[in-house]
């Protein structure tokens, strides 16, 4: 016997039993961005490797060790996108969407990172992302945060997530701080692990979010980034805080929050949950005013975020918030006799014209009543429509409730739509 081929480790099938909850999450998120007037953009899944190296930064987890990179048949180095921001900026530059324009964009789709698979961390995962361009004030930063807060409310998880925010200041302020931080880290080099020591010289801010407890301890005395802020940075951040207060959104300022990617400045934020264990960040974002120019466009301010859909789905499952997920079948059609089998499906087509939102499944493969009702029950339908010889002869249909104790009724075909609507 030949060996079964299995899916790639860390890349999951989404089975029919799970798709309804995914659809619920996806449509909830889509509805919220639509309600703020955002437009969808769709980018390719594969891009030139150079795009991610130049935008995410050479010394980041993603570029150092997580990318799926390969040479195509022409010998060009391509990469399965590990995130959406770089592609979105590339697309925006390429099609002239960014310079001197205001854009509020969103996208949704698979991302790829070669990480160690575990709960909430996969090699193919899905993000819902938003990127906005052309606005440099904290008003849009606040809009993105309030919009994500609305998403949690719609999904019913608003009490399960908390917001952490920070400011990274301007590039210049961060460069000055970088020098001071390196100086400090050098004095404590013996305490640093290999990773931190390497990062100290290449990307010292990343040392701030180390998980190493010994290093965390010495960092208590490290110079603080916001001591290097000028008035503009201070005001941008305090204005953001003021706006969040006005929205009634609670947050914690976390000075250690620096984010893994190179391209952020000013605002960074994360929504974190305690209900998923170690993989607790469900949404992360920030301002990246330098990226558009870094990728060859004209300088354009930008701010965005991305959230992990697997983590949201896991949360809804963990919190048992999946009851209201819509069933796949509302109505199951049972037919007995040759005439019924031929004529009923055509009658159902007329019903579908009248009831486009009702999900009607028609029995296939015949069988006696008992067998068909068993299938009706398994389908999850709320009601069964029954067509036997009498119904066909009299132009009626019988309606049987599958989940409720209620009398079976027989109605004229012309009243069928109304009866079904009332029963669902
Ligand atoms: P983490 O610290 O968990 O590795 P990250 O900083 O690498 O996250 P981002 O690049 O900011 O993550 O991506 C935004 C969001 O995408 C994360 O907050 C998370 O919800 C989700 N995400 C990132 N990597 C994965 C993954 N490998 N599997 C599932 N979801 C992921
Ligand atoms: Mg990561």
From TrEMBL:
Respond yes or no to whether keyword ATP-binding is given for this record: yes
> SUPFAM superfamilies, per this entry?
Class II aaRS ABD-related, Class II aaRS and biotin synthetases
**Domain Aminoacyl-transfer RNA synthetases class-II family profile: start-end pairs:** 1-330
- Which molecular function GO terms apply here? histidine-tRNA ligase activity
Per its record, the protein catalyses:
tRNA(His) + L-histidine + ATP = L-histidyl-tRNA(His) + AMP + diphosphate + H(+)
- Known EC number(s)? 6.1.1.21
Subcellular location(s) per record? Cytoplasm
Q: Which domain of life is it from?
A: Bacteria
> Keywords for this entry?
Aminoacyl-tRNA synthetase, ATP-binding, Cytoplasm, Ligase, Nucleotide-binding, Protein biosynthesis
Q: What class of enzyme is it?
A: ligase
Summary of subunit composition and partner proteins? Homodimer.
The family assignment reads:
Belongs to the class-II aminoacyl-tRNA synthetase family.
- Under which name does UniProt file this protein? Histidine--tRNA ligase
Please name the source species. Catenovulum adriaticum
